[in-house]
Structures are given as C-alpha cells and as structure tokens.
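Module 6 notes. Inverse folding takes a fixed backbone as the condition and produces residue identities as the prediction. Think of it as a translation problem where the source language is geometry and the target language is the twenty amino acids. Below is one complete input and output pair. Work through it position by position during the lab.
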C-alpha cells in the first residue's frame, strides 16, 4: 500500500462495533480519519465514547459533524416522545433512524473525496443488526455503486470501496476480534437509553452486547444501572 493510498474514513459512533472496525482498519495499515455524527440523538454518551476510542486507537483525526435528524424525528433515538423498547419485537424496531446510514455514508464519501481517500469503513452487521434495513449487504453494494458515480473522484476513475468487515460476524466474533487487537471495550458505549451515565441493561443494544460478551467468553466491562 503506497503512502497516497492508505487514508481511510472510518465512521465512528463510539459503540462496540465501530471501535472494532477502527482497530481493524488501523491494524490493516490505514491512516484512519474518524468521523462521528452529532445527529440529535437523545444522549451524547456515545459521542464522548467516540472521542475516547479515536484517541486510544490511533485515529489521525477525529471530526464530529452536527446533523439535526431530531428535527425530522421518527425514531426512539431522536424523538423523546417515542419510548426506547426494553426488548426486541417483530419487524423494524422504533430505534431505526430513517436514512441514517445513507446520510452518514454520504458525508463520509464527501470527506473521503476531500482527503483523497478511496476507502470508507463502517461497522454495519447483518447478523445481530436488529432488523435495520441499512445494515444489509445489498444496501452497502448499492451505495458503493452510487459512490463511484456521484463524485468528481469517481468520474476521474477512483474506485471508492465501502469496507464492512463485521457484516457477517456475530457479536461474539466481533468482540473476540477486538480483544485480539487490544480494544478496550470499557471505553465504548452501546446503550440506547442510559441512566445517570450507566447502561440501562434492558434495550436491544444492551442485550446484544451482554450476550456477545457471554458467548465470546470475554469479561463485560460495561457499567449497568
């Protein structure tokens, strides 16, 4: 990999999955430019976690962009009138944020073009993905095809690649991989509805995280309410 080819934009939420992806990209020899979105989520614990993770896992730069998706609403993560569910149900859950990954990838694509980067990493997962439509392989493939058409860089022949190294992994596999790379999961935050800074232990995200640590045989460093 030449010096001009090793820049990558890594979408970093501050959660377990994105921290693992950042560690994987860094271990793969990329100079990682972390990008987080302050999209009007109901708490900022994950953004504080993203800052900790970026500093610890060797990001060259960490940008946090403001994006007021709460002005649109439609999700329990951006609209406080919608309760965060305590357990999973059928269909797409109310924690789905309309078009969030599409918007985030679009911003990452713009950032990558400015940097001269051909690679974007995102921690979507199609195994423990809670039913979100924008975590599916077909969505990623469609976005990558669009990315190669939508930018000046693409028109000039740059083949932007969207990397999804976790897409076929279970949560336990992700945790094992991160543990091998030295990820400190105590720095991350996954809870949708924290209580006084502590993870609720009841939402879908907390339950997936708990099960993942149990199945991986790795101690869970999460502080639960």
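Target side of the pair, the amino acids:
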């Amino acid at each position: 990999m030449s010096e001009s080819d090793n820049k990558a934009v890594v979408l970093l939420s501050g959660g377990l999955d994105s921290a693992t992806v950042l560690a994987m990209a860094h271990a793969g020899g990329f100079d990682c430019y972390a990008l987080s979105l302050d999209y009007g989520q109901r708490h900022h614990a994950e953004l504080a976690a993203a800052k900790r993770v970026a500093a610890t896992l060797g990001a060259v730069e960490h940008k946090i962009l403001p994006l007021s998706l709460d002005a649109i609403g439609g999700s329990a993560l951006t609209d406080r009138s919608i309760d965060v569910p305590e357990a999973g149900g059928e269909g797409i859950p109310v924690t789905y944020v309309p078009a969030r990954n599409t918007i985030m990838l679009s911003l990452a694509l713009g950032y990558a073009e400015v940097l001269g980067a051909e690679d974007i990493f995102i921690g979507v997962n199609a195994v423990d993905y809670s039913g979100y439509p924008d975590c599916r392989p077909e969505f990623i493939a469609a976005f990558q095809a669009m990315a190669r058409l939508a930018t000046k860089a693409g028109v000039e022949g740059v083949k932007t690649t969207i990397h999804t190294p976790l897409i076929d992994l279970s949560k336990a596999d992700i945790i094992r991989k991160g543990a091998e790379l030295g990820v400190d999961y105590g720095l991350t935050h996954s809870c949708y509805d924290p209580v006084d800074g502590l993870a609720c232990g009841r939402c879908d995200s907390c339950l997936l995280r708990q099960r993942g640590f149990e199945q991986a045989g790795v101690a869970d460093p999460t502080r639960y309410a």
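Reference fact for the lab report: The CA atoms of residues 76 and 210 lie 21 Å apart.
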